[in-house]
Amino acid sequence: MEKEIAIIDNNSLARIGLANLLEEIIPEFTIRTFGSFAELMADTPDMFVHYFVSIQIYLEHTAFFLRKKFQTVVLCNAETQAQLSGVLSLNINQNEQHLVKSILLLHQHGHHKGHPQGHPAGMLPAARSQMPPQNDLTMREIEVLSLVARGFINKEIADKLHISLTTVITHRKNITEKLGIKTISGLTIYAVMRGYVEADSI
C-alpha cells in the first residue's frame, strides 16, 4: 500500500518548499499537496498517514483534524505556535536550517520516544532504513560531516580537528562526491538519519 502525506495550505510557495524538504527526509513517502480543504475532501481525505495543514485551514476545519490529532501537524508562525497548546505544530517562518531541524525533531519525537497513543504509525516514520548506503565515508569524513551538520564553518572545523583548512575543503569535496548531496540541509538530513548527530544538536 502506498504511503502518502498531505500538505494542505493555500500558499503555493509554502506547499512546494515543505514538500521538497519532506521528500528529502522521508523519500519512501509520496508527498501530495492541496491548495484548500475542499481539494483535500474532493480527493481521498482519510487515506493519508500525516497531514501538514496551515493554521487557517486547521481552525476552519478543526473537527476533521481533531479526529486525526496524532497524524496532524499545524503549520504556523512562532506567535501562533505558542497558542497551540497540545497540538503538534511546525513554525514555518524560520530559515531552512532551523526548519530542517524542527522537522527532524518531529521525526525523532515519533521514532525514538514511542508512538503517540491512538496512532501506531508514530509521528513520522523511521527513514533510516530508506537512506542510501554510507558510500564508504572514512571516519575523518564522518567527523567533518558531523561538524558541518552542526553548523561549523570550514575554519572552525579545521581548528576542532587540528587539520588544515585545505584538508577540510578536500574532505567536504569527497563527502559531496560520495553522497551526491550538495546542500548543507541535505548533508544535515543525511547525518541525522545516519545517527552521526542528534537533531537537537544542529
Number of strands: 5
Q: Give me the CATH architecture of the largest domain, please.
A: 3-Layer(aba) Sandwich
Characterize the overall form: elongated
| Distance between the ends | 34 Å
Poorly predicted runs: 111-132
Residues in β-strands, percent: 5-15%
> What is the string of helix and strand elements?
EHEHEHHEHEHHHHH
CATH superfamily of the largest domain: Response regulator
Number of domains: 2
User: Which structural class do you get from the secondary structure elements?
Assistant: alpha/beta
How much is the radius of gyration in Å?
A: 18 Å
Percent helix range:
40-55%
Can you tell me about this structure?
The two termini are 34 Å apart. Strand 1, helix 1 and strand 2 form a beta-alpha-beta unit. The longest helix has 17 residues, at 96-112. It contains ten helices and five strands. With 202 residues, the chain is of the alpha/beta class. It has helices spanning 12-25, 37-42, 55-60, 62-66, 78-81, 96-112, 139-149, 154-161, 165-179, 184-193, and strands at residues 4-8, 30-34, 50-54, 72-76, 89-91. The protein folds into two domains: 4-128, Response regulator (Rossmann fold), CATH 3.40.50.2300; 131-201, Winged helix-like DNA-binding domain superfamily/Winged helix DNA-binding domain (Arc Repressor Mutant, subunit A, Orthogonal Bundle). The chain is elongated. 48% of the residues lie in helices and 11% in strands.
